[in-house]
Amino acid sequence: MAGKIPRNFIDDLLARTDIVDLIDSSIGLKKSGKDYQACCPFHNEKSPSFTVSQDKQFYHCFGCGANGNAISFMMEYEKLEFVDAIEELASLLHLEVPREQDNYSKGPKISSEQKRSDYELMLQAARFYGHQLKHHKNSSQVIEYVKGRGLSGETVKKYLIGYAPSEWDGLCSLFARNPSQKQQLVDLKLASEKTPGRSFDFFRDRLMFPIKDKRGRVIGFGGRIMPSDGDDKSSGPKYLNSPETRIFHKGFELYGLYEAKQAHKKLEQILIVEGYMDVVALSEQGIEYAVASLGTATTPEHMHTLFRTTDRVICCYDGDRAGRDAAWRALENALPYLADGKELKFAFLPDGEDPDSLVLKEGKSDFEQRLSQSQDFTKVLFEKLAIECDLTTDAGKSKILSLALPLIEKVKSEFYQENLLEQLARLIGRTKEQLNQKLNNPRQQNTLQKKFKMTPMRIAIGLIVQHPELAREIPHLPELVELGLPGLALFKNLQSLSLKNNGINTGQILELFRDTPEYSALTKLASWQHQIGDETLVAYFQNTFKFIEDQCLNHRAETLLIKDKTQGLTSDERQEYQLLVLAMANSKKEQAAD
Questions:
Q1: Within the chain, how many helices (H) and strands (E) appear?
Q2: Contact (Cβ atoms closer than 8 angstroms) between residue 318 and residue 350
Q3: Are 309 and 267 in contact (CB under 8 A)?
């Protein structure tokens, strides 16, 4: 793995990126006073409540609460992970993303040049397979097979479908001209090497399906073996997938996701199926929201990606035992991502059918009608558990309770948890309240988080986050931090950052606190509408700071007074107490004069 991205590069990237230009190029913005507005891209609305501040380099939606800086926008809007968002922003500015040397990272380091070369070679391989589909001596049979599966040239072009020639070295003879190139082909699993120096093509006589990552780069392949003499019993596995490589990790990738996102500005739902041919056959019929796992069960990482991309996921499986088992694994992996507004359903197909064959028989309308009748995940969950437990006995009821509660605890949504508890209570003859006591539910502890009272300390922190230049309008904090007033250490940290980094903006400050416990509170304070005019902002901030300073002095004086009564004070502490009393008296006089 490569080392970490240096912090100063991230800071510089945010400094060079204008969040207004970035978001305007994606959704279109209109000037509204000092800021810019649009309808929110993260929820449906008719009147614009999405605001972008050029001064703060920060966006906030008053409707759904979405907020953040340029990196956050790329992560949420483009559905990218943090590192991918950094790389995408850097590419827009024609910057190379540097990496720190990490002595603790496992595995070989991958340079940017190496990754770029790998992606280029995978793209060239995809183009080679595409060329072979049209020009190889077997192309007429391959094209007839493709047409026989109901695929048009447009769909073939959209998914870059190609043909791996039947020769042992069709790809190698073109791309492995020296030892370095041979090794790269082997590393990327485009070639195999049984004996040193003698390599041969990994994929041979197969219909090829390039696998793309979230950014549309080819990272692997799936190959469907070509039937011999009209039958489907050729030697070798029916489907052969690229093994894991330094750029391909199949547990994280989904075939067809990039194409689905390109076909829709917003994906209302995603259908997850089992095979590449299912995805392309559904697309051919106009169902352009299907994806497939890559020869593996649907993983937690798959579910995380899916629910970051859409609110509704439909899992489509065969109705046999294997299909039901696959559905159960998908359900278990999806539970932690079922937040409010997220929907998980299951469609089970008739025996002997798969999406590819069924959509050809039924057409788009009937197939989508079938999807509309999909089973909710709660039904699948309790049907599976009920099969394993005899609910006519107390032993069976206690067993289903022990099996269901750990699953229910995984669910994020409080609404879904309540619904599941109600169904479980009916099954075993208990009340929801009785079961709720058994549930290890931390949500009751989190109710205070919903209330965000603006205390003087939060006001001061919020103002310095939104207006970092205010850090110069107050004295640099002395030993006050040692007094232990809640929030004071964070305030001092923010002041120091603002003083050291002239011109730092809200977006950059937030990025410095990403993945810290303070990040959530800081994003709320960055979105706070303080309604303080520019002409009174400095005075308001100074008065707030003065109030906090007085709180610190009072706190310290009370601490010393208690110690004097219980243990006695040293001479230095007694002198400190007298100075504190004098300082508080002077502060009251100043307030009275004002």
A1: 25, 17
A2: no
A3: yes
What's the Cα-to-Cα distance from 205 to each of 103, 136, 144, 369, 436, rounded to whole Å?
A: 43, 11, 15, 37, 58
567 vs 559: CA distance, rounded Å: 12
Calpha distance 414→411 (Å, rounded):
8
CB 257 within 8 A of CB 214: yes
Q: Where do we find the tokens 């706070």?
A: 528
| pLDDT tens per residue across span 359-403 | 999 999 999 999 999 999 999 999 999 998 988 899 999 999 999
Structure tokens at 387: 């099969």
Instruction: Please tell me whether the overall predicted TM-score, pTM, comes out greater than 0.70 for this model.
Output: no
Integer Cα distance of 212 and 220 in angstroms: 7
- Half-sphere exposure in the Cβ direction for 479 (13 Å, CA): 3
Token pair recorded at residue 191: 């070639």
485 to each of 389, 488, 558, how far by Cα in Å? 55, 6, 13
Question: Who's near 45: CB < 8 A, 6+ residues apart?
Answer: 39, 63
What confidence tens digit (pLDDT) does each residue in 212-223 have? Answer: 988 889 999 999
Contact 19, 72 (CB under 8 A): no
- Indicate the pairing of strand 270-273 with strand 239-241: unpaired
180-188 LR contacts (CB < 8 Å, sep 24+)? 184/117, 184/118, 184/121, 185/121, 187/118, 187/245, 187/246, 188/118, 188/121, 188/122, 188/242, 188/245, 188/246, 188/247, 188/248
Nearest to 182 by CA among 162, 201, 208: 201
Q: Which helix or strand (DSSP H or E) is residue 540 part of?
A: helix 534-566
